[in-house]
Amino acid sequence: MKEKELCRTMLFCPATNPKLYLDAPTFEPDSIIFDLEDAVKYDEKDSARELLAEALKFLEFGKVEIYARINPLYTEFGEIDVRRLVPAGLRKMRLPMCESKEQVIELSKLLEEVEKENGIEVGSCKIQASLETPLGVKNAYEIAKASERIISISFGAEDYTRLLGVDRTKDGSELFFARTQIANVASIAGINAIDTVWADFNDVEGFKKEAKFGKQLGFAGKSCIHPSQIEVVHKVFTPTDEEIEKSIIILDAVKKAGIEKGGVIKVNGKMVDIPVIEKARRIVTLAKGAGKI
Fold this sequence. Notes:
- It is a single chain.
- This protein is an alpha/beta fold.
- The protein folds into two domains: 9-237, Phosphoenolpyruvate-binding domains (TIM Barrel, Alpha-Beta Barrel), CATH 3.20.20; 241-289, no CATH class.
- The protein has helices at 18-23, 45-58, 78-88, 101-117, 134-138, 140-144, 157-164, 176-189, 204-217, 228-237, 241-257, 274-289, and strands at residues 9-14, 31-35, 65-69, 92-95, 126-131, 150-155, 192-195, 221-224, 265-267, 270-272.
- The protein has an eight-stranded parallel barrel, surrounded by four helices. Strands 9-10 form a two-stranded antiparallel sheet.
- The mean pLDDT is 95.
């Protein structure tokens, strides 16, 4: 199983805005996605790519993981994005509007070619496939398993609802199938699932409710469109002090009993077996990644 990175928050930033390259990391999202696709006008695609390439070469982003949402390879910009940004230092990218394993394989082959041409270790560049259409959701499993480069899959609700011909509502009932499908597929594939954006950043309570529901469905985090959303998502997707304390107690008891690979013990009056142990391990890993222990 692939090692999962901490990705509670993925903050979208248009790659055209120089100020955001300096400001966005100060809000401490787990990841920043510099957008070369929807947020960039057609006649600004080349300049946005160049700005991002220079930022990757000269700026330090600390612990924040940097992604680029490249343009799809079927556009005139997608391949150029890859060939320019990988040598500049880009190692993680979101592939938008992904609908098939063939699209992942095409990008993977291009990445291998660019890695070899530039003396970069083959396999260094990773892919997050963004599922934004009914067909992409249908093919979620084959997409998730299409390449070892796939480290996560994400959901994009705006195009999904547009293609379904339905309105996006705040209760999200129209998204339930797609979200459960994506979260379950990610679990099977051993990778992270990232939930869709919430467009109304002034509706904090609605956003908090949706984030909690996404966590309950199995998502590891959420894409964000405004820095004000980061604190809310981190609070939702970070284990509480009580959860951490209970998990540490369980893992200590398991180690003393020598049942790390199987067996049952009682801890504080409750039975502890492999599923409980795995959950405790996951909570401790998340807590460490979030700097809580």
